[in-house]
Structure formats: C-alpha cells, structure tokens
Design brief:
Layout (H helix, E strand, L loop, with lengths): L6 E3 L5 E3 L9 H7 L5 E5 L4 E4 L9 H4 L2 H8 L6 E7 L6 E7 L1
Antiparallel strand pairs: 1-2, 3-4, 3-5, 5-6
Amino acid sequence: MGCGETLHLGEGDFVYCGRLSCPNPSAVSDILDDRETEHVVTFTLTTFDIRHPLRERCGDELVKCTLTKLLSEAGPPQIMGRYRALRTSGEDHWHMERLGP
C-alpha cells in the first residue's frame, strides 16, 4: 500500500500507517498478528487458494514455493475445506492437516 515512510510504532507495539488517506492503517499489525507459521490451503470444488507463511515473503522464497505446482497437478483432496500444508521432507512432500470447512 506504499506505507513505508509513514509507518509508526504505537502503544503496545501496534504498527500503523499515519498517512491520512491510507485505506487500511492497521494492515501491518494485522499481518504481524497472524500466528500461523505454515501454508493454509482452502479447497473448493473447482479451485484452491494458498495463504503462504510470512517467512516466504523474504527474498524469492514465495516464487520458489512448489506447493502451487504440486496442487495444480494433483487435484483437490476428496474433502473440500481448509488445510494446513506441512512440508514433510524435501520440496515435493507435503502433509495436509484438515483445519475445517
């Protein structure tokens, strides 16, 4: 959102954007408050969506993530819903832990 120079640290370590026209001043704090450390995948009947962990946003890790390609090739699981994807060993081995509908 272009907040870089307008970010401030407030009371209780709350990070916010001080620009008056910012559409979401608390976005950084909201992102940092997310305690999920793994990939979260949501499967529907026709597609899937992956929320990557924050650690993959450093460098090129997000671009190098193999999960999207693997899921595209494998197709959805038998049960639709949300899953935590855990890397078990190497780049191409993942375990899906069901989180809910």
